[in-house]
Design goal:
Helices cover about 10% and strands about 30% of the residues. With about 200 residues, the chain is mainly β. The chain folds into 2 domains: about 50 residues, no CATH class; about 120 residues, Methylamine Dehydrogenase, Chain H (7 Propeller). The strands form 3 sheets. It has a 4-stranded antiparallel beta sheet, with no helix packed on it. A 4-stranded antiparallel beta sheet has the order 5-6-7-8, with no helix packed on it. Strands 9-10 form a two-stranded antiparallel ribbon. A hairpin with a 5-residue loop joins strand 5 and strand 6. The longest helix has 16 residues. It is elongated, with a radius of gyration of 29 Å. The relative contact order is 0.10.
């Protein structure tokens, strides 16, 4: 071990004893200019969750800059998907429900029930005639738009497909000829079968 290595090892031993470390001149790769932003002191901390850290009488203002919101879900929302042509969105959440919404005014159009666990995926068919929800209960539930109705909120339940428990599927595009049934191969994969 040469003299420089010995000195470096001695410096490291001292750092471990004092828990303080300093950079040497040759350790610096580049210096950044100071931008005026300084870290907060511990006493300057703000606890937003409890409103602490603000001055007396100051009110926290939460700004909602969203274009639209759908407030009916009672807990977390896991999926939102939009209709290909109509101003409709489908959402699904932890409350075991799906909803169809008018995206122009936020009005609830249809409550999509029947799941026994969180609704984690939802989507419309490519032509917009059907909507499906998939949940952690292994069910895929499918509704179709009432063909003779001009109202965007007229949907009827079509069928339910039961798969393995705790399945999480991505519904993608649903073709009307593929909603008859599907098979569970035991490993969480679902294969749609053509209706006869």
């Amino acid at each position: 071990m040469d003299h420089q290595e010995h000195e470096r090892e001695h410096e490291l031993d001292q750092v471990e004893e004092t828990d303080e470390a300093y950079l040497e001149e040759d350790d610096v790769l580049a210096e950044l200019p100071e931008d005026g932003d300084h870290p907060m002191d511990e006493e300057d901390g703000v606890d937003i969750a409890h409103g602490e850290g603000f001055g007396e009488g100051e009110e926290i203002v939460w700004e909602d800059s969203s274009i639209q919101h759908f407030p009916t879900h009672r807990s977390s929302v896991f999926v939102v998907s939009t209709h290909p042509t109509l101003p409709i969105a489908v959402s699904g959440g932890e409350d075991d429900l799906g909803y169809l919404w008018n995206i122009e005014d936020g009005e609830e159009l249809v409550k999509l029930t029947g799941h026994a666990d969180s609704v984690t995926c939802a989507g419309f068919s490519a032509d917009g005639s059907m909507v499906a929800t998939g949940g952690m209960d292994g069910k895929i539930r499918i509704w179709r738009k009432v063909a003779k109705s001009e109202k965007i909120g007229d949907w009827e339940f079509l069928t339910e497909l039961q798969g393995p428990d705790e399945v999480v599927v991505s519904l993608g595009s649903i073709h009307p000829s593929m909603v008859d049934k599907y098979s569970d191969y035991g490993d969480g994969y679902l294969v749609a079968k053509m209706a006869s």
